[in-house]
Amino acid sequence: MADDMSLQGRTTILSLPKNRTPAIEVQDLNLWYGKFQALHEVDLVIKSGIVTALIGPSGCGKSTLLRSCNRINERLGYVTTTGTIKVLGHDVYGEGASQIQVRRNVGMVFQRPNPLPLSIRDNVLFGHRLHAERKANRSDEDAMVEQALREVLLWDRVKDRLQHKATGLSLEEQQKLCIARLLPTKPSVLLMDEPCSALDPEATSAVEDLIWDLRGHYSILIVTHNMAQARRASDECVFMLMGRVVEHTATERMFVSPQKQETSDYIEGRFG
Question: Which fold does the domain 23-267 belong to in CATH?
């Protein structure tokens, strides 16, 4: 069970090319909700092909930073942003940057599974049908569905009920389906905002295993309040406090020998 697992992190070593373009580069990022400043002068480089966890107490700016990376904060209408965020070298807030293209390249998974009230098959194809320049034929769509569901380890479970409503799946299966829904558009980065918060320990463990399997193929940035999960399921950790990045280092190093007193206090439960 996920909550009973050892705090020891996973040890699989990725063999990634050197000098890869960072997945995400944040420079001097400030963000306001109305008059309230939620992010202060954030500078951050997220490496490609690994899992990076954002940790910190509630209200520290984790989800705000995460949602800034695909401009989803703009839906609120009263958000002001300064600074730059580059995804694979492209400034998502730059002149001429398309929200549609940004959200195609940067997929988002939310706290609670949010399958559409459609069939399993149509859920997987929804994003591709929305963004594709030309309509795919039936055989191409079938191949996309199978590939996406295989990537999230769902194919064998649902291949005989693809026309069934997605809302009939278990919560674990729904969350995996929501990840599968992103894959046909071929995103470079996957953002996950507390993706296991609505799941039981067994389902949490299954989704963590999936996240670990996807690393290397995708760059994953995950927000979590669960310290054990951050240590188990990430390569690097970023600790945030009051809208600022306090520390960013390899996950095991952060949990064994944090460099900042605030990081140590948070990890040891002195606040948060």
Answer: Rossmann fold (3.40.50)
